[in-house]
Amino acid sequence: MNKVVGVLDLQGAVAEHLIALRNLGVNAVSVKTAEDFVGLDGLIIPGGESTAIGRLIREQGLEDVLRTFYQEEKAIFGTCAGLILCSTDKSHVTEDLRLGFIEMEVERNGFGRQIASFETYLDFSGIDRKVEAVFIRAPYIESVGPKVKVLATVDQKIVAAEQGNVLVTAHHPELTEDYAVLTYFLEKIV
């Protein structure tokens, strides 16, 4: 089966995701409009700036189509800013978009500013070796609901989790040549 995976192309690390997916032999496409969701098997909401991406989702009228995609139980992967957007986070008083796809509260820029960006190797549940991970102004997950499976932590801070058809990571798997996490996501696509 040739999987078609879309990358939400409003702002952020879109090109890097498209390249990584194509390197894995996936039919990867840019998603900018509601029509672009037709025929997708999975969707990546990339890293970038969560406030800007959320605003653009609303301006482009994509919030309902994203929620429908989620309700159809299609695979969704939120990386960094995408993690924030997928959250149910009510811990901060904000008008910023939260899609509520995974029950968790998030600390935006939890590891600090750009200068505090770092690389490490993670123990990642479901992957039988350490995974190379790049964190850039990364959030972390403060708490999760009972249906959420924690997949990885850094310094006791949750940095990867999944609930049903949704996978989220605080790191950027598209910025390394270690495609283990992207492969893990692709395996969620039925």
Automatic annotation (TrEMBL):
PROSITE patterns linked to this entry: GATASE_TYPE_1, PDXT_SNO_1, PDXT_SNO_2
Q: Where is the active site?
A: 80 (nucleophile), 172 (charge relay system), 174 (charge relay system)
Per its record, the protein catalyses:
L-glutamine + H2O = L-glutamate + NH4(+); aldehydo-D-ribose 5-phosphate + D-glyceraldehyde 3-phosphate + L-glutamine = pyridoxal 5'-phosphate + L-glutamate + phosphate + 3 H2O + H(+)
Q: What is its EC number?
A: 4.3.3.6, 3.5.1.2
Cellular compartments per GO CC: cytosol; glutaminase complex
Among its keywords, does the record have Metal-binding? no
Q: What is this protein called?
A: Pyridoxal 5'-phosphate synthase subunit PdxT
Its source organism is Marinilactibacillus piezotolerans
- Gene that this polypeptide is encoded by: pdxT
